[in-house]
TrEMBL record:
The chain crosses the membrane at residues 9-29, 35-56, 77-99, 137-158, 179-198, 210-229, 236-257, 263-290. GO terms for molecular function: endopeptidase activity; metallopeptidase activity. This is CPBP family intramembrane metalloprotease. Keywords: Hydrolase, Membrane, Metalloprotease, Protease, Transmembrane, Transmembrane helix. GO terms for biological process: CAAX-box protein maturation. Pfam families: Rce1-like. InterPro entries: MmRce1-like (IPR042150), Rce1/LyrA-like_dom (IPR003675). Residues 148-249 form the CAAX prenyl protease 2/Lysostaphin resistance protein A-like domain.
């Protein structure tokens, strides 16, 4: 078996086993999936791919971590990584509004009902207070600004917890397969990795079982975008920024509408999948017609 495949398979198996065991052990000791405990466990869950990547790279294969894309050399693709999630989120909002029974309603109680499962009671009260005190346009701009700031700071740290594994180790090892095949394997792994959280109500509280399939489709679509950012920026840090900003802004579309459900609206619903697919088409067009150094047909990840 190819050495790169062996290393990638080891990482995938070790990561999935470690993450699944974390959830199993949490419940085995009597843990309940309620806030804030669920948030703490989820935060730990996100860092496991990073730890497994470090163990695999340094302790087992005795190779440099820098080769996984640990570079702070800034370029325009860091900015793209930061702002592209906002474009996807706004497109998701627009597409959601095209669905039957969905309408714009920035102060709806239904939006609060959707997000109460992913925030603490104190945060929910603060959100309710903000909704009552601010005009809708000011609230939207504030949420966007907060999301962008969080995306490039604290959320990027948590995003890095995943990205050192996905776009660091896995993309480096699977690079020889080509852009689309490597992205598909990473996206599939990423989706399966989410399965325990989704089954516990994360992202799809109304449809957790179908949600596992939907989340996997979402990660399969997002994977080539993140991979492209990783390649063009020559840094896994840029991928972490995009990951963090996407997570920080993901709640915006569902907070501004009423109607629909977790399978149809929002970043991880059908509306989000359509928006992400449109961005993939845009990136492909850019790479084919405008890029000075096209990467999609044949790519080598630079250290």
């Amino acid at each position: 078996m190819n050495r790169n495949i062996k290393k990638a398979l080891f990482f995938i198996a070790f990561t999935l086993l470690s993450n699944y065991l974390l959830i199993a052990l949490y419940f085995a000791i009597g843990g309940k999936w309620v806030m804030p405990n669920a948030l703490i466990v989820t935060a730990v869950y996100m860092f496991i791919p990073m730890f497994i990547a470090i163990i695999t790279q340094k302790l087992i294969y005795r190779e440099s971590l820098k080769s996984l894309g640990l570079s702070w050399k800034l370029n325009k693709w860091f900015l793209v990584a930061w702002l592209l999630p906002l474009i996807i989120v706004l497109a998701t909002l627009g597409i959601s509004l095209l669905f039957p029974g969905v309408e714009y309603s920035p102060t709806t109680s239904e939006a609060l009902e959707r997000i109460k499962s992913i925030v603490t009671p104190e945060q929910l009260k603060q959100i309710q207070s903000d909704l009552a005190a601010m005009p809708s346009y000011a609230l939207i701009l504030t949420n966007i600004l907060q999301g962008l700031i969080a995306g490039v700071t604290i959320n990027a740290v948590f995003g890095f917890g995943e990205e050192l594994g996905w776009r660091g180790l896995l993309q480096t090892e699977l690079n020889f397969m080509g852009f689309w095949k490597s992205s598909a394997i990473i996206g599939l792994t990423w989706g399966v990795w989410h399965a325990p959280l989704v089954l516990l109500g994360h992202n799809y509280p109304q449809h957790p079982q179908i949600g596992v399939f939907m989340m996997t489709i979402s990660t399969l679509l997002l994977a080539p975008i993140y991979s492209y950012i990783r390649i063009k920026s020559k840094s896994v840090i840029a991928a972490a920024i995009m990951h963090g900003t996407t997570n920080a802004l993901a709640g915006l579309p569902i907070s501004l509408i009423k109607g629909g459900n977790d399978l149809t609206i929002g970043m991880t619903g059908l509306a989000g999948l359509i928006a992400i697919a449109i961005v993939i088409i845009g990136l492909f067009a850019y790479d084919y017609f405008l890029a000075k150094e096209p990467v999609i047909s044949k790519v080598k990840v630079a250290p």
